[in-house]
Amino acid sequence: xxxxxxxxxxxxxxxxxxxxxxxxxxxxxxxxxxxxxxxxxxxxxxxxxxxxxxxxxxxxxxxxxxxxxxxxxxxxxxxxxxxxxxxxxxxxxxxxxxxxxxxxxxxxxxxxxxxxxxxxxxxxxxxxxxxxxxxxxxxxxxxxxxxxxxxxxxxxxxxxxxxxxxxxxxx
Length: 171
Prior knowledge:
The chain is α+β, with helices and mostly antiparallel strands. The protein has five helices and eight strands. It has an eight-stranded mixed beta sheet with strand order 1-2-3-4-5-6-8-7. About 25% of the residues are buried.
């Protein structure tokens, strides 16, 4: 486990996390943020959890659960990992009831320290919808720099939306 200050921990997924993961993955309001646009069964998600902890080199991604007071409240991900360039995308999802309380910043800050320090990554990037100023402010507060605008990158409710590309290069 990775301690997130005195708030909680980042840890590998456990079978007991199935209901939380099922709720998040099947929240259609979040589908525009990822590649998957369809519901997931509990059986498929249970198989995914059984394959954890993910291996970044093997799978090109790693998801850790964010737990506060013994309760799952979110997940952090690194995806599209490139082992040669030591870069990857980073993201976070929180349960609706804990959003806006500053937890995302603490979890992401801890995760990026782990990715840079322990795993030796060199660069992280985040793709943030133009309509999500809270996430833009989050990544900017973590020293990510906006490095581009991706035109018509996201489709939400049948409409294309631009997205900001943010990068953080480890110095």
